[in-house]
Amino acid sequence: MKNITFFILSLVIIISSSFSSWAKTDTEEVERGFKGRFMIGIHEIDDVKEICFSDETTTAEDLVSLGSYSSQVEELYLDRCKVDDEVLASLPIFPNLRKLSLRENFVSDKGFAPILRQTRLTDLDLWYNTYITEEALKNLLPIAKALTVLNVGLTQLKDAGMKVVAANFTNLEDLTVSGCELTDSVLEDILSLPKLRRVNIGSNKFTPSALQEFLQKAQKRGISVKS
After folding, report:
1. Which of 69, 99, 121 is the last residue in one of the domains?
2. Co-location of 186 and 207 in the same domain
3. pLDDT value at residue 40
């Protein structure tokens, strides 16, 4: 009988411990970045600097419903959220945004006007938004000098867009232009970026000889290249 009682008590302790651990993990996850729906526990959190909606369909109403917390947000992740130009229109409610990730969405060249109001933005990730062309980069010119990190991989950037980047986004330290159908003619443009430290140029249309020459020059400048 004592053995049975001891077994039952041990089982209760294990279950209680597991629940406590799960609850702590769940709370930490909400505090760390609101993975999933952010409304869980939001009113118990005083400092909201990072919000992650990734893999959740997100509407403009979802963002607006953050209310006063939006002024605290510095990093916003909307990857694979079916974000379009309408959702972007709600971005002005984030006055202190420094990083914006819009990977794998449906943003077009015309949807960037709200981003121009993000005067503190330094890191912009537009990877795999296939409606984006060089016109999007032209629309971003008012904040071009503020950006230090830019990812426009797997967009319709092409050579014309890369030339816009090289001429205007001169404070970039980290640039991704992989899968943008770039040719040899823009390799020197990439090297002309004075503060560049890391660049991803993979899956483009560079010839082996031109790429080899580029890699040698990049190495001399201390630029890390992914090709």
Report:
1. 121
2. yes
3. 41
Q: Within 13 Å of residue 62, how many CA atoms lie on the same side as its CB? A: 21
User: Are 64 and 81 in a shared domain?
Assistant: yes
Q: Furthest-apart CA pair in the chain: how many Å?
A: 84
The rounded average pLDDT for each run of 10 residues, N- to C-terminus, in the chain (227 residues) is 48 43 39 42 62 90 85 94 92 91 95 88 97 95 97 98 98 98 98 98 98 98 97
The CATH code of the domain that includes 178 is 3.80.10.10
In the chain, the number of structural domains is 2
Residues 66, 79: Cα–Cα separation, whole Å? 18
Residue given tokens 């526990």 in the structure block:
41
Give the Cα separation of 57 and 54 in Å (integer).
Answer: 8
Sheet-wide strand order for 224-226: 50-52, 75-77, 99-101, 123-125, 149-151, 174-176, 198-200, 224-226
pLDDT of residue 18: 46
Please report whether residue 172 resides in a domain: yes
Q: Computed over its alpha carbons, how large is the radius of gyration of the chain?
A: 23
Per residue in 58-108, pLDDT tens? Answer: 998 888 888 888 999 999 999 999 999 999 988 888 999 999 999 999 999
Count other Cβ atoms within 10 Å, centred on residue 24. Answer: 10
* CA-to-CA separations, 118 to 43, 88, 95, 168, 206, in angstroms, rounded: 25, 12, 6, 18, 35
Question: Does this model's pTM top 0.90?
Answer: no
Which positions ≥6 away from 95 have C-beta within 8 Å?
70, 71, 120
